[in-house]
Design brief:
It is a single chain. The chain has helices at about 5-20, 25-35, 40-45, 50-70, 75-95, 95-105, 125-130, 135-155, 160-180, 190-195. It is mainly alpha-helical and about 200 residues long.
Length: about 200
């Protein structure tokens, strides 16, 4: 199956999930919306659980790609971290699956695949990856923190050593996650991040 067709099926599943609880999403409807047979859908994902894992994996990848873009947006380290925090909060606000992945709070409307790897007999490489371990909320904190440290370490204006820089980056990540649960008031995330970062970051 072409990757574009797999994406179309995942798009159809995502659209269906926006309209009804996952328990009410039917494979036949997802296949029809994507313009393929139900058998093609099963060949690609194996089962409805496989489709759920693939959907969650795709949303996780999209979220992390957004983190990469945010970290590359500015030259100033504070602006990079601010953009990253703002992306984290907006992605969680706009995407229920991302919010569930970041917080670990899966509503009854959503699929809730186990985070551990599941046995996979799929011949589809993308599905074998989806059947592997899915990131936990703690994994996301670590991944984003480590990526921020790597990017900022390559910036001439960053002064603190590795441990201090890692602490600052993790603090910003956790601050952004708190804004997912309790959105900030006037001034928003940018003001919170700038007040939280130590002066010696730049």
């Amino acid at each position: 199956m072409m990757p574009a067709a797999r994406e179309s099926l995942l798009d159809a599943a995502h659209t269906a999930l926006a309209r009804r609880p996952w328990s009410a999403v039917r494979m036949v409807d997802v296949a029809a919306a994507a313009g393929v047979s139900r058998q093609t859908l099963y060949n690609e994902f194996g089962s409805k659980d496989g489709l759920a894992r693939a959907l969650v994996r795709r949303e996780a990848d999209g979220y992390l790609a957004g983190v990469e873009r945010a970290l590359a947006t500015h030259a100033d380290p504070r602006d990079r971290l601010t953009a990253t925090a703002e992306w984290m909060a907006s992605a969680a606000r706009d995407n229920a699956l991302v919010r569930a992945m970041l917080t670990g709070c899966w509503s009854e409307r959503l699929p809730a695949p186990t985070l551990a790897a599941v046995p996979s007999s799929s011949a589809v490489p993308a599905q074998r990856r989806a059947d592997g371990p899915l990131p936990s909320p703690g994994d996301f904190v670590r991944i984003v923190r480590d990526r921020a440290v790597t990017v900022l370490r390559g910036t001439d204006t960053v002064k603190p050593g590795g441990a201090e820089l890692a602490r600052s980056c993790e603090y910003v990540v956790r601050l952004a996650l708190s804004c997912v649960a309790a959105p900030p008031g006037e001034g928003g995330i940018a003001e919170l991040v700038r007040e939280a970062l130590p002066g010696q970051l730049i």
